[in-house]
């Protein structure tokens, strides 16, 4: 019996490392290679020394494209309340003609903003008569330009009068870009949402109405992210053994207001005032600069961590991981922490509640409530001090639902199904 040819898939991502979407893309890409798929990544910016990742040759237009994108962002910056808002007006031309795109059975999109694919560039990808799977990192594919709409639900009907742009105009930039997205051909498009929360929002959106939507969660390499001896992990990282360690970190952790560093500082102040003498230290990673803490607390700044093994060691060294993000999809950091046997404390936003079992593997605080966040920190610190099995339960939960090998097989099954159902081009 003739064996089917290996499935070939090209993943399109802004980069291969920085940001949750890019990291999820790269991890899935490597897991698919382990499953025997012909997986490749095509990126605008390449950081890893990996021959299976290709940086697109953007030619002489890269600099002006990025300059135009920055100018447009700057024009709206004061009205965007420090939020990420991608107009999608500018991108690299000709990506649809790249050999890796032309030769693939499946095209898989991730976070493609930042001057990689414009709204028109996505349109050209969707017109190639190839199955396209878009793994959602946020809500941009179903809005007029925002990545996290907050309380706005105009994406369910039609984007206009965008509150993040401070606009009251029915034909503003959000409306124009939403109308352009409405013209995307979607007959070959399948959407994958890593959280049930995002899958439900995608199903309610006007732009993705009628599109097949699958829920496939995010996987992690359990051979890397696993429980370690806290004493050994702290010794390796030069962290104290006689203090409880609260770990906080994310991409651009302290500078992005959406990550909730201000709310965390308030919660730490409350916790310190309640306890008197502080028996805990704060460990920080992911920021380019060490922030000034407005309270007397020892801070260990680990900076930007790129090596997976080092990050896994840091998670294992902590007593708890806190993610006070005010908006999230399905945070990789929570999965990483719990896989390393460290309970997590977080605001109950987005898909975070799908990861943390309140009271069993961590604590879910009321969104934006620093008092409740402090209560969660105190609760989990008290359980870790008494050798509670909370961390063990956290690791088991991730091992059952987020094993990277299982997630890769689910994607491979979806890709194979879509390839088999592909309609040939009519002569």
Question: Would you summarize the structure shown here?
Answer:
The chain is of the alpha/beta class and 427 residues long.
Q: What would you note in describing this structure?
A:
The structure is a single chain. This protein is α/β, with parallel strands linked by helices and 427 residues long. 34% of the residues lie in helices and 15% in strands. It contains 13 helices and 13 strands. The protein has helices at 20-34, 62-76, 99-102, 119-126, 173-182, 196-204, 230-237, 261-275, 308-317, 332-339, 370-385, 390-401, 404-420, and strands at 8-15, 38-45, 53-55, 106-109, 132-135, 189-193, 212-215, 244-249, 280-285, 299-301, 320-323, 344-347, 362-365. The chain has a seven-stranded parallel beta sheet. It has a six-stranded parallel beta sheet with strand order 10-9-8-11-12-13, with helices on both faces. Helix 5 links the parallel strand 5 and strand 6 (189-193). The longest helix is centred in the last third of the chain and has 17 residues, at 404-420. The mean pLDDT is 90.
